[in-house]
């Protein structure tokens, strides 16, 4: 079946679904395959649960007038999404970067939705499946789409850009994330910059953080809108005031106080302000959007437990974000401080060095107790006697059961796979 024909059927459906547990009536089901499952085997179940059609790629499952046989289900999903994006011709803002992508995306969406009907990536569904699903969730009512793009190898951002065909783009930063896949920091810069390449080659617009010299250099021949703190060559000036603990910024004589901690969040806020300004959102509405945004999903959340203040930042971690979190944590008010740091994943050959670097930093700061969890942190060395190491979380649990924290500031930071939010059960 040609994509044009499939698109006509898709328009008749309510939404796209790839999980039979979430099927709703009149969905279009795509029978994706994974390492441990074959979506084709669920096609009949999807139809029984109310799906209008099921897209399969194995002939033995093409058993009904409601099944659609294609050569490859995943490629068909991607091609349909790209076709639908062209069909709608909605302005698309693409977003990538090493740190802060999801927070920045949520801030941009909060700001633009003050004036427009927006659709944005849900959570961090930012890969070769998530991007198509985001595009297919847009309708003729959508006025602006905001698409987050993640990658851990070269050519992934380029591929996602060819699916989404963004009109605008922003890269949050270039940090030490996914070093194993990218082969080092230079690979990270090259991989993330694939978005710049696409936008420049297609004469589109790039939002640029004027405080980032790499961004400035790579976009010097681009159509760009530059924001930053007070210096020459900016299209809009946004100044940092403080982060004690919440980030305050100043824009167009307005003071904006967010619910985000850490000065590293200033750039994320500034990007949302700049993009809101570019799309002519009223200043007061920009202020409202930023001030009302509350972080969720283990991202820089502030949690109060009796006399303890917890910074839960356990959604993800890499050397760049870990360093920023620690430096910010040291600035917290003068209570006792304890940092729980879990392993950072996907660092490849740099894992030993980067975990040791973070250990050295953490133990040099004004933090009374540093608790390291995971196989990589367990291997690190330090002369500081107050540093605790636990190879596995179960080992940490025994220590936590005897640890009665009072009047303490707590940082919990690790890669997602460590699931360090489990510490909350003991505080």
Automatic annotation (TrEMBL):
Binding site for ATP: 97-103
EC number from the UniProt entry: 6.3.2.10
Domain Mur ligase N-terminal catalytic: 15-81
Record keywords, A-Z: ATP-binding, Cell cycle, Cell division, Cell shape, Cell wall biogenesis/degradation, Cytoplasm, Ligase, Nucleotide-binding, Peptidoglycan synthesis
Highest taxon, organism lineage: Bacteria
Reactions catalysed according to its record: D-alanyl-D-alanine + UDP-N-acetyl-alpha-D-muramoyl-L-alanyl-gamma-D-glutamyl-meso-2,6-diaminopimelate + ATP = UDP-N-acetyl-alpha-D-muramoyl-L-alanyl-gamma-D-glutamyl-meso-2,6-diaminopimeloyl-D-alanyl-D-alanine + ADP + phosphate + H(+)
Location(s) in or outside the cell: Cytoplasm
Name of the featured protein: UDP-N-acetylmuramoyl-tripeptide--D-alanyl-D-alanine ligase
Molecular function per GO: UDP-N-acetylmuramoyl-tripeptide-D-alanyl-D-alanine ligase activity
